[in-house]
Design a protein that fits this description.
The protein is of the alpha+beta class. It folds into two domains: 2-188 and 343-396, FAD/NAD(P)-binding domain; 193-333, no CATH class. It is built from eleven helices and 20 strands. The longest helix is centred in the last third of the chain and has 18 residues, at 379-396. Bound molecules: flavin-adenine dinucleotide. Flavin-adenine dinucleotide binds at residues 6-12, 31-34, 39-41, 43-45, 49-50, 127-128, 157-159, 162-163, 167-168, 172, 340-341, 367-368, 378-381, 384.
Length: 397
């Protein structure tokens, strides 16, 4: 059997390895438009590659029901055994799982070396521009006009449009659309958020603070999580903000929501006020310096229009309020170049079991190309693996 895999990221690599493990006789070709396989994989997990999460749950994804089924079929322990079958031991850090090397480049290089050892044919610098069906087979058209003959199966693992500098830039989706696929519009997911009134946050640029974060639209709390917020020049970043951004973008309500930061999630506002009052009594001019770095002290005075001297009880109350509920209004997500995953992709309605195309028999999809996105914490690489297993099982049946 001849199989063409379009896109040599995590999903393309996993699919090829899984197919070769069970069927060394298959002739597998990976077509990758970049000069190297797995460029994005090399950048994952802050260079450490958070490849799985112990706490796999449907609710971590945009299609929880669909993912519950996938997780039932391929539970966490099974996914670990698959990674180990590639020859890679894993380590846990909390719920996050990494390769034992704790190094995304080493992990990628190891997998690519395994592909070569298995005899997978790798075509680099090879942008696939179209495919043509003849009978039950497919011919792959590419920018360099090379003829690679006919393939029995074609697997699209082209990713989404996030971090285009690392390969996937969304430019192949019009081709899938031309072939009749329903493409849920691509939007940046897991990325920082620009806020209205960026001049407010600018002085805080670079500051990190562990807080509780809430997103509210109307009267509905749509998101609540604790984590570290990183203040940027014109917005908010950090893992907790990435997750919040994805949740609000999935619902299409980012610009209709407000983001609320609680700097003292373990203290009731009344307790905080008592504390502020006591410390204010000790140091009427600079009592907040014991709480925060200078930039944040000035920030709280400035946004509340309070002079830094002998505060009244009302002013202390205002400060306590804003430390418990600092509100930002989102303007927009940062662009794709800053996003870790793409929301949208080939609609799940276009695939049947084994992620095979509903209409084009022998055409498959795995990974981010499909309309599945997960939150931070290894959920997207988990999906890359689960979907690659599903495809390889169906092809290898
Ligand atoms: C900075 C960063 C950190 C991340 N960290 C994590 C993490 O720690 N854990 C986690 O779970 N997820 C993480 N993610 C998300 C995760 O990396 C992706 O969801 C995952 O890599 C998607 O794999 P994929 O193979 O489906 O797509 P991709 O990795 O995007 O691979 C698609 C490949 O297809 C190629 N391609 C596209 N079109 C064509 C074409 N027409 N012809 C030929 N080749 C083509 C592209 O060049 C690319 O190499 C991170 C993402 C980023 C950007």
């Amino acid at each position: 059997m001849r199989i063409a895999i379009i896109g040599g990221g995590a999903s393309g690599i996993y699919t090829a390895l899984l197919l070769k493990q069970d069927h060394p006789e298959y002739e597998i070709h990976i077509f990758e438009k970049e000069k190297k396989l797995g460029r994005k994989l090399c950048a994952t997990g802050n260079g450490r590659c958070n490849l799985l999460n112990v706490d796999l749950k449907g609710e971590k994804y945009n299609h929880p029901k669909f993912m519950e089924e996938a997780i039932k079929a391929y539970p966490f322990e099974y996914l670990v055994s698959v990674i180990r079958s590639f020859g890679v031991p894993v380590r846990r850090e909390g719920d996050n799982v990494y390769p034992e090397s704790y190094n995304a480049v080493a992990y990628t290089d190891f997998l690519v070396a395994s592909l070569r050892r298995f005899g997978v044919t790798i075509h680099l610098d090879c942008l696939v521009t179209d495919y043509v069906q003849k009978g039950s087979q497919y011919r792959i058209l590419n920018l360099s006009c090379m003829d690679f003959g006919f393939f029995d199966k074609v697997v699209f693992t082209i990713g989404g449009a996030s971090t285009p500098n690392l390969g996937s830039d969304g430019e192949t989706f019009p081709l899938l659309k031309k072939h009749g696929y329903d493409i849920v519009p691509l939007r940046p997911g897991l990325c920082p958020i620009q806020v209205k009134n960026p001049e407010d946050v600018k002085p805080l640029s670079g500051l990190r603070r562990k807080v509780s974060v809430k997103a509210i639209a109307g009267t509905h709390v749509l998101f609540k999580e604790r984590g570290e917020v990183l203040f940027k020049g014109n917005g908010l970043s950090g893992i907790v903000i990435f997750n919040l951004e994805s949740v609000l973008m999935r619902l299409g309500v980012l610009a209709l929501s407000s983001i609320h930061l609680d700097f003292f999630p373990d203290q009731a506002e009344s307790v905080l006020l008592d504390d502020l009052s006591a410390f204010h009594k000790l140091n009427p001019t600079n009592f907040l310096d014991g709480y925060f770095p200078k930039s944040l002290v000035s920030f709280f005075y400035k946004i509340n229009h309070i002079q830094q001297n002998n505060l009244s009880t009302t002013q202390l109350k205002i400060l306590a309020r804003s430390m418990k509920d600092l509100v930002f209004v989102p303007a927009s997500p940062y662009p794709f170049v800053n996003s870790q995953v793409s929301l949208g992709g080939v609609s799940l309605g276009d695939v049947v079991s084994g992620l095979e195309s509903k209409r084009e028999k022998g055409v498959f999809f795995a990974g981010e190309v499909l309309d599945i996105d997960g939150l931070c914490g290894g959920y997207n690489l988990s999906w890359a693996l689960m979907s690659s297993i599903a495809v390889s099982e169906k092809i290898g049946k």
